[in-house]
Amino acid sequence: MNINEALKILNLKDNGDLIKLEKAYRKLAMKYHPDRCPEKTKTKCREKFKKLTWARKIVEDYYKGAYNPDNDKEHGKEYEDYINRFYSDLFGD
Fold first, then answer.
1. What value does the CA radius of gyration of the chain take, rounded to a whole number of Å?
2. 77 compared with 52, residue with greater pLDDT
3. Which member of 15, 17, 22, 24 has the lowest number of beta carbons within 10 Å of its beta carbon?
4. What's the pTM?
5. Is domain 3-91 in CATH 1.10.287, yes or no?
């Protein structure tokens, strides 16, 4: 995932506002958190929630000046593995 994809997932513009980032993330997290979704959509919600969390991290790093687009694939895979392990432990998947 790159910065443009992350911004799109969070419905944000590239304005560097960390408060807007948190508000956008929280709003979407409340909508897609697996504990808040009906049983029949839990898998879809879980995947969407993972993407939201990953997108939040990318945008946060970008806004703080710590984002390096050259590392998208390397760090993306690393972070994706971390998120998958975290949610597997949390939700038993």
1. 13
2. 52
3. 15
4. 0.74
5. yes
